From TrEMBL:
Species annotation: Lawsonibacter hominis
Pfam families: DUF218
PANTHER family registered for this protein in UniProt: ENVELOPE BIOGENESIS FACTOR ELYC (PTHR30336:SF4), INNER MEMBRANE PROTEIN, PROBABLE PERMEASE (PTHR30336)
UniProt feature coiled coil, ranges: none
Domain DUF218 stretches: 39-194
Protein name per its UniProtKB record: YdcF family protein
GO biological process: Gram-negative-bacterium-type cell wall biogenesis; peptidoglycan metabolic process
Taxonomy, superkingdom: Bacteria
InterPro entries, alphabetized: Cell_Envelope_Assoc (IPR051599), DUF218 (IPR003848), Rossmann-like_a/b/a_fold (IPR014729)
Gene Ontology CC terms: plasma membrane
Length: 211
């Protein structure tokens, strides 16, 4: 006669608590990153309201032979718009990094004037070292009377950068103004991939710390 086998259910090998906690944290991080990426992408569009009078071009890395691919994309996008709007005042904003031979503002000035833009229309902001300072120092120029007091701004940058710019602009200056955006495409694929991962983290950092 056969012995009755033990039919207790097999519990299997339990994962250590720390592994389950790590898996949950990883899942939460991926979800948060996905949400931030969606926010970044949703803000990267050209939106023109009314008739802007002050164009602000945000700087980017300068190479020994001139603007980087990202910066050239921004400048070429600005030039296309300026062809049909020759009366805009242009602010170029960006300081000089340790590895740059000139300030980003000066590089942009040289590029724009080299493509036919009247240098008298261009105002340089060459002290800033990040997006928050770009905005703060540009607004200081505006409040000092160095720019037209219309409050009608057109912000020019790479498409993935615009959502963070708008967040910080609205935080830096809660006054009355009209804000338009001009999105520059990114023609340099390695930079595009890099910014796909970097910009959501930069947006989170700016949300909590740039004040």
């Amino acid at each position: 006669m056969r012995r009755k086998q033990d039919c207790r259910p097999y519990a299997g090998r339990r994962r250590p608590v720390w592994r389950r906690a790590a898996a949950l944290l990883l899942l939460a991080a991926l979800v948060a990153f996905g949400v931030l990426e969606a926010v970044v992408l949703s803000g990267g569009r050209t939106q023109i309201q009314g008739q802007p009078e002050i164009m602000v071009i945000f700087g980017c890395q300068v190479k020994p032979d001139g603007p980087s691919a990202l910066l050239r994309d921004r400048l070429d996008t600005a030039l296309d718009y300026l062809e049909g709007h020759p009366d805009l005042t242009v602010v170029v904003t960006g300081g000089q990094g340790d590895d740059e031979h000139v300030s980003e503002a000066q590089c942009m000035y040289d590029y724009l004037t080299g493509h036919g833009v009247d240098g008298e229309r261009i105002v340089l902001e060459d002290r800033s070292s990040n997006t928050w300072q770009n905005i703060r120092y540009t607004l200081e120029l505006y409040q000092s009377g160095a720019l037209e007091p219309s409050g009608k701004f057109l912000l020019v940058s790479s498409d993935f950068h615009l959502r963070r710019i708008k967040l910080l602009w609205e935080r830096a200056w809660p006054g009355t103004y009209t804000l338009s955006t001009l999105a520059a495409p990114c023609s340099h694929l390695p930079s595009r991939v890099q910014m796909f991962f970097r910009e959501p983290l930069a947006l989170a950092k700016s949300f909590f710390f740039d004040r």
